[in-house]
Design goal:
Layout (H helix, E strand, L loop, with lengths): L1 E5 L3 H12 L3 E5 L3 H10 L15 E4 L2 H5 L4 E4 L6 H8 L9 E3 L12 H9 L5 E5 L4 H4 L5 E6 L3 H11 L4 E6 L2 H23 L4 H21 L10 H12 L4 H8 L7 H8 L4 H16 L4 H11 L4 H9 L8
Parallel strand pairs: 1-2, 1-4, 2-3, 4-5, 5-6, 7-8
Antiparallel strand pairs: 6-7
Helix pairs in contact: 4-5, 8-9, 8-10, 8-11, 8-13, 8-14, 9-10, 13-14, 14-15
Length: 331
């Protein structure tokens, strides 16, 4: 089987390896010729997870047409802000029945559309779309450290097919029918990781981080239920699992952005210039505001992160505001 992976960042590279280990020939779409040369000639991605030696079955290209030729699967691993443009670019080469796996985590700016909704609008076929999400840092997956994900689709057959295709001895997949819940969990956990990072940057401790994670889960579950998802999804791999790893891991760019940049008066532009990486939580805290207003769901932590990232609010003042909120029942 041939699989096409759109996006040669750290996660796209790691998933390409998983698919190659599962027996697929992989065509990895990259934007830069230097990345193509590094992967095809040295079996390394020179820009991301460069310490990993990639299987021979991974071949990189800058051509959409070449990447999708004879593909039995297309995996989209692009930042959420570029997803619609990417879908439009590949549309001429995507067959009507080609299964699509979406790995972007976020909500579309302006519309509040989830990634699966964007793909369905541009490429059609809700039943062929599957969302893959979970607590999986690329830096560990490329070294074949045991990891688990959830595959969510409105079609059980699609979810099972994707689950079986991606499963290896170190990469374990489960299925879900709650595509809304899985996608919203993926957006929220990045925002809360920024908040946790800020708390550590301000000199707070593990108690504070645990409180932020727990109350962040409450915000997540309120929004998931309001949008038609299942509260139980928030307790699974896409929710609790991804929240824990993103908030606590040294690999987390969202936590690092909060701790080393926002808490120290630096900006999103500074982070992206230094790392050449996208902070999905920075956009999500703004785009989730659209859903918050639409469904009248209170999101105090998310709103606090939005004020810090986009409005230049003072971190100490925002922390005090959260601590001074009226006392209430936990549930």
């Amino acid at each position: 089987m041939r699989a096409c992976v759109i996006g040669s960042g750290s996660w796209g590279t790691a998933l390409s390896q998983v698919l190659a280990d599962a027996g697929c020939d992989v065509r990895l779409l990259a934007r830069r010729e230097s990345v193509v040369a590094g992967i095809n000639e040295e079996h390394r991605n020179p820009d991301y997870v460069s310490d990993a030696v990639l299987p021979d079955a991974i071949v990189a290209t800058t051509s959409h047409e070449e990447a999708l030729a004879d593909a039995s699967l297309c995996v989209l691993v692009t930042p959420s802000r570029y997803l619609r443009a990417t879908a439009c670019a590949i549309k001429p080469y995507v067959a009507d029945d080609l299964p699509l796996v979406i790995c972007s985590k976020g909500v579309e700016e302006g519309t509040g559309a989830l990634p699966a909704d964007v793909l369905e609008e541009e490429l059609g076929g809700a039943e062929r779309i599957c969302v893959l999400s979970g607590p999986t840092h690329a830096e560990e997956v490329v070294h074949r450290i045991p990891s688990s994900v959830v595959c969510a689709s409105v079609s059980e057959d699609t979810a099972v097919w994707v689950r079986d295709l991606f499963s290896t001895e170190y990469f374990r997949a489960y299925t879900s029918g709650d595509i809304v819940g899985v996608e919203l969990c993926g957006a929220f956990k990045n925002v809360i990781a920024i908040a946790v990072g800020i708390s550590y940057g301000l000199g707070m401790g593990d108690n504070t981080a645990a409180a932020i994670i727990t109350r962040g889960m409450a915000e997540m579950s309120r929004m998931v239920c309001a949008c038609g998802g299942e509260a139980l999804t928030c307790m699974g791999l896409a929710g609790t699992g991804d929240m824990v790893v993103t908030c606590t891991s040294r690999h987390s760019r969202n936590r690092r952005f909060g701790e080393d940049y926002i808490a120290r008066g630096r900006t999103l532009d500074d982070f992206e210039a230094d790392t050449h990486m996208v902070v999905e939580g920075a956009l999500a805290c703004k785009t989730l505001h659209v859903l918050s207003e639409r469904h009248q769901v209170e999101l105090p932590l998310t709103e606090a992160v939005r004020a810090l990232v986009w409005e230049g609010a003072d971190p100490e003042a925002v922390a005090r505001m959260l601590l001074d909120r009226p006392l209430r029942s936990e549930f």
